[in-house]
Structure formats: C-alpha cells, structure tokens
Specification:
The complex is a heterotrimer of chains A (about 375), B (about 375) and C (about 500).
Chain A lengths: L9 H16 L14 H28 L3 H5 L8 E3 L1 E4 L3 E9 L5 E6 L6 E6 L2 E9 L4 E2 L1 E3 L4 H8 L9 H32 L5 H13 L6 H10 L7 H4 L6 H11 L4 H9 L4 H12 L1 H17 L2 H7 L8 H9 L6 H33 L3
Antiparallel strand pairs in A: 1-8, 2-3, 3-4, 3-7, 4-5, 5-6
Chain B lengths: L1 H7 L6 E10 L2 E11 L4 E5 L6 H9 L6 E6 L2 E2 L10 E4 L11 H11 L4 H15 L14 H14 L4 E5 L7 H18 L2 E6 L2 H7 L2 E6 L2 E6 L1 H6 L4 H6 L6 E9 L2 E3 L6 E2 L12 E6 L4 E3 L15 E10 L3 E7 L5 E7 L9 E6 L5 E4 L4 E3 L2
Parallel strand pairs in B: 3-8, 3-9, 6-7, 7-8
Antiparallel strand pairs in B: 1-2, 1-4, 4-5, 9-10, 11-12, 11-14, 12-13, 14-20, 15-19, 16-17, 16-19, 17-18, 20-21
Helix pairs in contact in B: 3-4, 3-5, 4-5
Chain C lengths: L2 H24 L7 H9 L1 H10 L4 H28 L17 H6 L13 H37 L4 H9 L6 H12 L4 H17 L4 H22 L17 H18 L1 H5 L13 E2 L2 E2 H18 L5 H18 L2 H5 L17 H27 L3 H9 L4 H29 L3 H6 L11 H10 L5 H25 L7
Antiparallel strand pairs in C: 1-2
Helix pairs in contact in C: 1-2, 4-21, 6-7, 6-16, 6-18, 6-20, 7-16, 10-11, 10-14, 11-13, 11-14, 13-14, 16-18, 18-21, 20-21
The chains are: A alpha+beta (about 375), B alpha+beta (about 375), C mainly alpha (about 500).
The structure holds adenosine-5'-diphosphate and magnesium ion (MG).
Adenosine-5'-diphosphate binds next to strand 2 and helix 2 of chain B.
Chain lengths: ~375, ~375, ~500
C-alpha cells in the first residue's frame, strides 16, 4: 500500500530490511544500558500482558460492539463482531420480507424470500421471479445480512419510544449527574477545610481529631448500613437525593489526600498573607485552595467515580421512589425484568460506561498517581 | 530587669521589647529580651542559626504569640494586635511569593485586603515597581523569575504597604554570593531613601557589619550585646561576641594569668599585656583574644606597626593563603594551639616555615573562664 | 419535613442572612467584587469565628463541617446500631421500637450448631449461610486477588515501554460500576454468549484433529521437538552471566524451565502413566483409572515434579541439571504412551450456563473471577507504588553480588514490599468481607443460596421484604466482630512486617 523509498542499491535495501527485522524482533528490552536481548522473561511478561489485555478489554469491547447490534442479532446471539442485520426487502406483490440466499442442487445461488411457514421444506420464491414457488430445505436458507448500526438501541430509551418507554434514561442520568456534581462539590469543600485545619494549625485536640478521622477509615460502611438509614430517615432525607449526597460527603481519604498535599505548602506563604492582612478564610480561599488544585483534582475525580458508581446505598435510600433513581439503580431494575431487552440493557450499560471511560482516558495519570500516593480507597 | 529597659526606653522609640519570653511547650527559646529601637534605625539581629532570631522577629511581626513580656510599637502595646494591624511588612527568607498570582497581584493583594482605594493601589504598585526596576516583570508569575528578581518582588510587596517598620528574615540567604553583595547595597540604599525603621535578621556577621546602624547579637535566646558595628568589633562584651563578629574570627589563646599583666601560655614565652589585670584572683585560667590583624610577623614588621611590649612567639606556619593584597597564615604554637594571622600585603613565609610572631597586645582582650571580658582591648 | 430538617433550613437562613449583613457592615465590596462577597459568605462562619475567638478559634471552625458529617453519619450510626439490634418490629421510628434485649442475637444463634446453617431457624439459617459463603469467598478471593495483583504489579514494573498504558489498563475495571460490570459479564457468560461460542469453536477445532490420519505420529514428533528445544534451552541456560570468567557455567534458565515444566506436566497428564501401567483404583469396568478422589494421580505427581524442577532452578540448587535430565527422559517415555487421537477427541461440547447451573461451582468461580477482575487494578497500583519505592541501587548491589532473579525477589523485593503487601492484604480482606454489589448484580445470591453473602442478608432483612431492622442490625454487629477479629488476626500474623 504505502511505497517505501527504494534506495539506489538493491542490496542495501535487502540488508536494511534484514537488519531491521532482526533488530526489531530482538530489540533491546529491560535495561537499555546493559543491552540484553529479548529473553524468555520478556516473552512471558508480554504473554501475561497480552492475556490481561484480552481479559480486561475483551468483554468491554464485546459489550460495546454488541450494543450497536440490532435486536434480532442479539436474540439469536450472533457472535460475529460486526453488527449484522438481516436484510428486509420490499418484494413486489408480496410485501416486506426477510431476504435469504439459497444455493440449490445445481449450484445456482439465488436470492429468495419465504412465502410459507418455515418447515423442513419451506416454500420460497426468488426475488427476480416471484411467480414460481420453490421448495427449499430450511437448513440451506442462508440469511442475507448487511452491516447496520442499530442506533435505535440508544435512541429509543433517550427519546422514550419503542419498547423502552418505561425506562426514563434522561431522568436517571440527570439524577446521577446531580448527585455526582453536588456531592463532589460538598466533598471538596468540607474535606479541604478539614485538611487545611489539620495541616496548617497547631491547636488543642489536633491529634484527637486526626485519630477520629483515621477511625472512620476503619469502620466498614456496610456494618452501619441499617442504622445509617435510621439517621437519614430522622433527618427526613430518605427517598431524596440528599440522602445519598450528604452521608458520604465527608471522606477520610479526601482529608488525608489533601492534608498530605497541603503540608507541602510552605507556612511562610500563609504568614506572608497574614502580614498582607488576609483573614484566615481568605488565606484558605485565595492562597491554599488555588495552590492545592492538583490534589483537589485528584479528589474530584475520585469522588466523581465513587458517586457515579455508587450502588448499595442509593438502592437503599432511593428504591421507594422511581423518580429519584440513579442510572445504576435504573440499570439493575431494567436488566432484572423477565424478558430482558438485551439491546437496551447493553446500550444503557455503554452509556453509563462512557463518562467514566472518558474521565479515565483523559485523566488516568492523575488518577493512578493520586491513588498510588494515598494508597487508600 | 524591666525597670532597666523602661528607663532606657524613650517615648519616641519606634519599637520596644520588654522582657519578651517565648517557649514551645517546655522548651524555652527566648529568655527575656529587652530592646529599644529608635525611629529610622537599621537594626540587625545576628547570631548562629537556631538562636531564636526568626522567632523574635516573628513575635514582633505578630506571627507568633508571646509567652511573656511585652512589645510596644510607638508606645502602644501590640501583644494582642493581629499581624495585619501592626503596620509592619515582612520579607521572608523564601520570599513567600504567592505562586499562583502575577507579580502585580502579589504586590496588590495586601492592599486589596486592607481595602485601599483602587487608584491608590495602582499608584503605589507602580512607584514600587519603578523603584525596584521590576516594571517589566509585572505580569509574570513568581515561578518565571530568577532568584534576584523574586527578591525584588518580595521587597516590593513590603514597600507598597508603606509600613511603619520593615522586617527582613534572612532575605539574602537564597542568593549566590555576588548577588548577595549587590542586594545588600540595594537594601541599604532603600533604607536611606525611605528612612523607615528596619529590622534585619541574618546569621552572617558580614551582612550585619556592613548594613547595620546597630547590631543585636543573639545567642541561645539571649542578647549578648547591642551596639554599633564597630563598637561590637572593638569592644566585644564577651568571648561569644568577640568570636562571632569579625572574619576571620578572633584568635583565642588559653592560658593563665601569671602576674598582674603577664599571660602564660604553655610552651611559649610569657605575653605581656598592655594593661594590668587587677581584679582577678591569683593565677586564674583566662583566654587571650587577639584579632588576626593584631598578630604580626616579626620578620616583616614595617615602620609604624604597633609593636607589643611582649616577646616574640615562635610558631609553625601550617598553611599560607596569599590573596595578593593580603595574606593569611594558619599557624600552630608549640603547645598545639592554633592561630590565624592576617598580614596586609604579600608575605615571604612558606608552608612549614617557623615564624616569629609579635602580639599587638594593646588591642588584645582577656576573657575569664566564663567568657566575660576582664581586660578590654 | 422533620423538625431536624426544619432546623437545618433555619441554620442555612441565618447563615446567609446574618452573614450578608455582617459582611456588608464590616467590609465594603464593590460591585465587581461580588464573587469575593460570595466566597466570604461561604466562609462566613470561619470569618465570624476569627472575629470572636481570634485565630485560635479558626481551626475548629474549619474542622466543624467535616466532623459534623462524620459524627452524624458514621459515629452516630455506629452507636445506634447497637441500640437497634436490641429492638424489634419494623417501625423506622426509634421510639416505637420495642426493646427486646438480646432476642435478635438469640434468634441468630438458635441453632444446634452454627457450623450447620440448616440446623438454625429461619433468620439464623440465612445469616449463617451468608456468613459461611462470605468466609469461603474471603478465603478464596483474597489470596487470588493478592497474588494476581502482585504478579501483575511485578510484570508491569518489569516493562519499560508503555508502563503507563499497562498500569491504566489493569486499573480501568476499578473505575467501572458493579452494575455495568455485571451486565458486561452476564452478556459474555450467557449460555449462548461469546465465551461458550468461543469454547465451542475451539472444541470443534481440536476435535477435528482427532479424525486426521497420522495425527498421532505428527503430534508426537512435534511435541518431542518442543520438549527437546525447551529442555536444551533450560539446560544451557539463557540467563545473564554474572562473572567475567568464561569458564563459569551459565545457570539453567528459569523462564525456559517454566515452559519446559509446563510441557512435561501436560505430556504426563495426557499419557496418564499410572492408568497405562494399571496402577491405582479401578473403575466399574475393571480398568485402572489412575484417579483418586477425583484427582488424577499422574497429573498431581507431574505437577509436583514440575514445581520441584522450577524451585531447584530458581534457587540454583545442585539438583537442577539432573532433574532436567530426569524430566526429559520421563516425558519422552510418556510421549510414546500417548494416544493423541484420544487426546484430541473431546466429545461433544455442551454449553455451560455459567452463572445459573447449581452445584457446579461455576457461579462461585465466576464471582471470584469477576471480583478479582474488578478490584485487582487497585491493589496492583498500591503494590506498584511500593515496588517503585524500592531503591534501584539495591538491585544493582544484588546484581554485583550475583544474585539470581529469584533470590533477588525473595530476599530483596518481597521483604521490602512486605509492608505494602500487608496493607493490601488488610484492605482487601476488609473489602472482601463486605462483598455485595458484584454478587447482587451478577448472581443475586444464587443459584439457590450458593453465593448468598452476609451483606445481602443484612440488606434483604432490613430493606426488602420483612423490614426486620433489629435482626439486620444484630447481623451487622456480629459481622463487625468477625471483621475486627480477622483484621486483627491478620495484622498480628504479619505484625513484624506491617507498616501500620
Ligand atoms: N514551632 C516550633 N516548635 C518548637 N521549637 C521551635 C519551633 N520553632 C522554632 N523552634 C526552636 O526555636 C529555636 C529558634 O528557632 P529560630 O528562631 O527559627 O532560629 P534562627 O535563629 O535560626 O532563626 C530553635 O532551636 C528551634 O528549634
Ligand atoms: Mg531563621
């Protein structure tokens, strides 16, 4: 396809190719200084990584590919990668029919449509000769397919039409976005305030407060599930999105992450601001927050992921009122129905996957380093 | 003690420290400082690192609470006045410029906090930037400036405040040697121009000697001596000040007072002091303090050199530094004590030579075993 | 609206109202400084605290919101949990819940023996089933998870190019929600899904070999050649020489050895030598099966041999070379015995309903698998950070000391990684105990109660049918005790190495 520039001397070309190939295959790995060639170690490592690639991305990609397949392809569990749809054609005098291909005993292949019930020998007519009814063995009829992206899988739930009318994706997404955004803002504010106090002031009880926050790290959220529901109910928050937002807004992880970062901000800067007649709140708002932006970004990303993916607690608080369901609850409710509409479930799964994947794609470096440095979740 | 300072302190003193104490927990850092600083003076706090200079300065600034005593600015007690209302400005060791604000914003931040009129802010920032020649840098961030430029901005931030007193905490210690000399001159010039009271902290005695109107020598949280630079040089109050002020530092020869005015040092002929020491008990252990330039090389004596009454002292030259216009000899006496000799001009002495030294004992100090001065030079 | 909700609104009104008045009176704002005013309004309580108490009051004001949230939504529920566990009924109002003492606990423990959930009464049965399933899950999933993340971290740390990509790849599933993950895997694992289809295809391909004439000889020769190559490579050693002395023999190569050992095990398994020799228990038809308790003895022996070989080579034991020779000889003999036609003849493929069929162990297997898939990246990341914190010069020193890669790992990497590994162990243990999302969305606790976990018990008892909050609270208290005991036990076991 692409032309390589031929050199004047063909033997040089030959040499280059050979050297290039060998050099490529046995290129230096591991330590470039010591220049060891590809060993079995590297092959095994690459095999492992390749396996990882397959196991991790395989199912995801398969889901994405499946989500654009037409309903019929999903119902028949078509395992081809591309979205094939059975062609329907308007046959004059008969109407819209599914198109098949039939190779008869003489080796002639014709385009046919069924005109009778499917039996061992089915009545068919060729599209170019609708008058003659032929008898074709059912198993010899090969469906004529075309590649077609089934956008209706996505559009039906979004536009509230077709078989997805009871599935209000817009409201689910709206609720999820609201919870995610508001909870993240509250988390950023309260956590950074606490982190500021714990990193930049010496005051009576600092160690105690520090220990209290560590203690919350050690309390598994599931063991206070029941009584947390009582508390939320007492506050009148059950059945509202605030019942999901507020209890999880203060995160020990966030406090630690931010505190760690704020410790690196020199105290002299705050003192300079004090000399500059800034109030303590102003120091926090105008000096410390802008300087903590990298850490705040990490926490914001983490918080978005936590809130977006949150499942058990929203399920408990919100299940009673479908109008406040989040996307995660909606997805389970939808896929839990008896005759699962796989096309919509898969499409909505992908929709819920997209924001997280985008966030991750663009910010994976921040996220991975942020988590690695805090070492907590 | 307080009464003493009350007597010393005038009504028109710009700043008065009265028995100022500071302790962190059980550790006493400042042990009662009494000091009166006059209007328009350039005062330098000097002392080895860890002696409490910064702590003292920060207490004056209002960044640190007092554990005892009182600070008065213009006769007003300011112990409980917050930093921003003391009408001071401070230049920090690390400059403490706000990294996320432009230079202009750095300069105006404090004025905005004080709700100074907008035009007034512009006016002050402009004149300060003109004064410090940083007009071209106004839109840059501190990260984009060189060390010297940052230094200017930090000073500029103090100037725009038009404070009663300027405070500097080792402002030049992050600069290279050449720039340090230059900035030293500029800060002195600034003092002349503005005429404000300035308090300058450094551990470098050269800076102290060259810049100060009066120097406060601190050690271990106490004032060792307070006076004009040459006063400290010529009449140090004790062995600490004598050793700290002057470079290379003063020589101390440990010995014993034989007769009223004769000092015996093991292994060398008795040194006759210019003035008798009468007040001490018989044969006490003392130290003879003599500056390098007051030790003369017998072979290279010139007319007009002050010659001591004393005998010649043999010594071995372990090291010779020839700087052209002056020379330094590092000698050891027969009993192993070492001695630095400063010789104006060049010398014929080579390493390993034995030289005869003559002490200009008229300029020598004698300290008793507690370090107190018993014979002023 | 509840009184407390009303109070919250009032506080908000005072905040905004009084705050605005206070700020406007104490400071002046120009119209262009509206955003400064808003920022100050948010921080009004802090400003106010500074005004009233001076700078000493400020840190408390900064801490207050966070601590209030922790207090109300973490510590208060923790205490409340005990109270609720001593009450009964399905009322959500605390005051209308009758105090029943330890009744709930007694019901949970109302068994002949808790080790046999069947002997318990209704709630006890569910609870203890969940408890034992959770134990089983923890005992399987935690080691699997830890080892998988350790191996992955080591491999990713090894790669030079694209490390960031691989790190991100393995971390990606951590970001996905359990519902999404369940949907994805249910789709893949469906009875007619892509996994069964792929397996079926592979099955068909292998089966088709069986029919080809001469495949026996061909396969034997091919495998023989492979064995020869790997054995030779293992023997000769491909490792780096650590001495400049040319006469020094290279050590047997570990990577090649692992391939060789794998081949040996495979060949021995196919040959099932014991069955061929007629040793071991016989089946109904009187032929030797070579199996004991459902395990292929030949396979077990071969595995043991392979591991022995690997260990000897990895640790540079003296037996390494003789073992290579022995293994090679044994596998050659086994090769002759193999009927490749039989090996390739796998019979008809029946698609498995992975998540649904009871008593196959597959639902549990896939649960562990998907759980590992979901969470491994997180622990890998922590271990990777730990690995990268090990000073590089230690490895250089080890290289100067001619340490084998295996010894470098066992004497340097692992000990230094131990604190991090302990953190990973503890975190993964606490987390595995609370497994719910994946189970609930993937299998719903089924088939039957095969994957029914204790959190699902708490959830269902409290929030679905019976609304028996007291019983659920009692269950959580017991569960908390178990988590605490497990965690402390683990910390105690690893106390010397733990970084916490
Ligand atoms: N926040 C603090 N807590 C305890 N000790 C302190 C604190 N700040 C300073 N110190 C101690 O006070 C002494 C004086 O410190 P400082 O004033 O910074 O010295 P310097 O003269 O070098 O500026 C030092 O010994 C230091 O260890
Ligand atoms: Mg200092």
């Amino acid at each position: 396809m692409s032309a390589t520039i031929p050199s004047a001397d063909p033997s040089v070309d030959q040499q280059r190719k050979k050297g290039g190939l060998i050099a490529f295959l046995t290129r230096t790995r591991g330590n470039p200084e010591t220049g060891s060639r590809v060993g079995m170690n590297d092959l095994l490592a690459w095999a492992y990584l390749g396996f990882g690639l397959l196991v991790i991305l395989g199912p995801v990609i398969w889901t994405v590919l499946s989500s654009i397949k037409p309903e019929t392809a999903l119902e028949t569990f078509d395992t081809r990668a591309l979205p094939y749809a059975h062609i329907v054609e308007e046959v004059p005098g008969i109407g819209e029919k599914l198109l098949y291909e039939w190779t008869n005993d003489d080796g002639v292949t014709r385009e046919v449509v069924k005109v009778g019930p499917t039996r061992k020998l089915t009545d068919v007519v060729a599209t170019d000769d609708v008058e003659t009814v032929l008898q074709a063995p059912r198993l010899d009829l090969v469906p004529r397919d075309e590649v077609r992206v089934a956008t209706e899988n996505y559009l039906d739930p979004l536009l509230q039409r077709g078989g997805a009318s009871q599935f209000n994706i817009g409201r689910l997404l709206g609720n999820s976005v609201f919870v995610t955004v508001v909870a993240t803002l509250i988390t950023l504010l309260t956590n950074s305030m606490a982190a500021f106090a714990l990193s930049k002031y010496t005051f009576r009880g600092r160690t105690t407060f520090m220990l209290l926050i560590i203690a919350t790290l050690l309390i598994p959220p599931t063991i206070i599930l029941v009584s947390l529901f009582f508390v939320v109910w007492i506050f009148g928050l059950s059945g509202t999105l605030w019942g999901v937002i507020i209890p999880a807004a203060a995160t020990p992880t966030g406090v630690f992450l931010l505190r760690q970062y704020m410790l690196t901000i020199p105290d002299e800067l705050l003192e300079a601001a004090r000399m500059d007649a800034a109030s303590e709140w102003k120091i926090y708002w105008r000096i410390v927050l802008p300087l903590s932006l990298p850490a705040l970004a990490v926490l914001a990303i983490l918080s978005v992921i936590w809130r977006w993916n949150d499942f058990l607690w929203p399920l408990i608080v919100l299940i009673s009122d479908p109008s406040v369901h989040t996307i995660q609850i909606g997805l389970t409710a939808f896929s839990g129905e008896n005759d699962t509409a796989y096309n919509y479930v898969l499409a909505m799964t992908v929709v819920s996957l997209i924001p997280i994947t985008l966030v991750f794609g663009f910010l994976q470096k921040y996220i991975t380093t942020g988590i690695a440095t805090t070492g907590m979740k | 003690m307080n009464t003493v300072t009350r007597d010393l302190a005038n009504e028109d003193d710009a700043l008065v420290l009265d028995g100022v104490l500071k302790s962190y927990g059980d550790v006493d850092v400042i042990h009662g400082i009494d000091l009166a600083i006059q209007e328009g003076e350039f005062i330098v706090f000097v002392g080895p690192s860890g002696c409490g200079k910064s702590t003292l300065l920060r207490m004056i600034a209002g960044l640190e609470n007092l554990s005892g005593g009182e600070i008065r600015i213009d006769g007003r007690r300011v112990n409980d006045v917050p930093a921003s209302e003391r009408d001071l400005a401070m230049v920090f060791q690390s400059y403490a410029l706000y990294p996320h604000m432009s230079v202009a914003k750095n300069l105006s931040f404090g004025l905005e906090n004080l709700r100074v009129d907008k035009d007034e802010i512009k006016e002050r920032v402009n004149s300060a930037s003109r004064l410090l020649q940083i007009e071209a840098l106004m839109s840059r961030r501190p990260g984009q400036l060189s060390g010297g430029q940052r230094q200017r901005v930090a000073i500029g931030r103090a100037i725009v405040r038009q404070p009663r007193i300027f405070l500097f905490d080792e402002p030049l210690s992050n600069l290279d040697a050449e720039l340090r000399v230059q900035m030293r001159g500029e800060i002195s010039a600034l003092h002349h121009r503005l005429g404000n009271t300035m308090i300058y902290v450094t551990h470098d005695q050269t800076e102290a000697m060259t810049m100060a109107d009066r120097i406060v020598v601190l050690s271990g949280g106490r004032i060792e001596q307070f006076g004009a630079p040459l006063e400290l040089y010529n009449r140090p109050a004790n062995r600490f000040v004598a050793g700290f002020i002057g470079s290379p530092r003063m020589n101390f020869l440990e010995g014993r007072l034989e007769a009223v005015n004769t000092l015996a040092v093991a292994g060398i002929p008795s040194v006759h002091l210019a003035r008798p020491v009468a007040t001490l008990p018989a044969r006490p252990d003392v130290a003879l303090g003599i500056r390098p330039e007051d030790v003369l090389i017998a072979d290279e004596l010139e007319a007009g050199d002050p010659v001591s009454v004393g005998t010649q002292v043999p010594a071995t030259a372990n090291g010779v530094e020839q700087l052209g216009s002056e020379s330094y000899l590092y000698c050891s006496l027969p009993d192993g004590q070492t001695l630095t000799v400063h010789h104006a001009g060049q010398t014929r002495v080579r390493r390993g030579d034995t030289v005869q030294l003559v002490f200009a004992t008229a300029a020598a100090h004698v300290f008793d075993s507690t370090g107190e001065l018993v014979v002023p030079g | 609206m509840t009184p407390i909700g009303l109070a919250a609104v009032l506080v908000g009104l005072v905040w905004v109202g009084y705050g605005s008045v206070w700020l406007l009176r104490n400071r002046s704002y120009r119209v262009t400084q509206a955003h400064h005013f808003l920022a100050d309004l948010i921080g009004f309580p802090v400003e106010w605290a500074q005004n009233v108490w001076g700078r000493n009051g400020v840190p408390y004001a900064f801490l207050f919101p966070n601590l209030l949230l922790f207090g109300l939504f973490t510590f208060l529920p923790l205490l409340l949990n005990f109270y609720v566990s001593f009450t009964s009924g399905n009322s959500i109002s605390l005051f209308s819940r009758p105090w029943v003492g330890t009744d709930n606990y007694q019901q949970l423990f109302d068994c002949d023996t808790v080790f046999e959930p069947r002997s318990c009464h209704a709630s006890g049965f569910n609870f203890w089933t969940g408890m034992f399933n959770t134990f089983k899950f923890v005992l399987v999933a935690v080691p699997v998870l830890c080892i998988a993340s350790l191996v992955t971290a080591l491999v990713v740390n090894l790669t030079v190019r694209g490390r960031g990509f691989w790190r991100a790849l393995f971390f990606y599933p951590v970001m996905l929600s359990p519902v999404v993950i369940a949907n994805i895997w249910q789709w893949v694992l469906h009875r007619k899904g892509v996994l069964n289809a792929t397996l079926g295809d592979a099955h068909g391909v292998v089966n088709s070999f069986a029919g080809i004439a001469g495949i026996d000889i061909l396969a034997s020769v091919m495998v023989g050649i492979l064995l020869l190559i790997t054995a030779e490579r293992t023997w000769r050693g491909g490792g780096v020489k650590f001495t400049t002395d040319d006469s020094a023999e290279a050590e047997p190569s570990l990577p090649w050895a692992s391939l060789f050992a794998g081949l040996v095990v495979l060949v021995t398994w196919w040959a099932s030598p014991l069955a061929a020799l007629g040793i071991g228990p016989v089946d109904a038809s009187g032929a030797a099966t070579g199996q004991l308790f459902g395990f292929d003895i030949g396979l077990c022996l071969a595995l043991a041999l392979g591991l022995l070989l690997l260990w000897q080579i990895a640790d540079r034991r003296s037996l390494a070379r003789p073992l290579v020779a022995i293994c090679f000889a044994l596998s050659m003999i086994a090769l002759v015995l193999i009927q490749f036609d039989a090996v390739f003849d796998l019979g008809r493929f029946r698609p498995v309903n992975w998540l649904v069929t009871p008593k196959t162990g597959w639902p549990f297997f896939w649960l562990v698998f998907v759980y590992t898939w979901h969470h491994m990246g997180f622990y890998m990341l922590i271990l990777l950070a730990g690995l990268q914190a090990i000073p590089r010069d230690l490895y250089e020193a080890a290289e100067m000391d001619a340490a084998t890669p295996f010894r470098t790992f066992s004497r340097i990497t692992f000990p230094l990684l131990m604190p991090t590994f302990t953190v990973v162990l503890v975190l993964s243990l606490i987390k595995a105990f609370q497994v719910f999302d994946e189970v609930y969305t993937l299998t719903g606790g089924g088939p039957g109660r095969e994957t029914f976990m204790v959190v699902q018990y708490i959830f269902e008892t409290a929030f679905t049918t019976s609304r028996n909050y007291g019983m659920a609270a009692a269950g959580s208290v017991i569960m908390a005790v178990f988590i605490a005991v497990f965690t402390l036990g683990q910390l105690w076991l690893t106390r010397r190495n733990s970084g916490i």
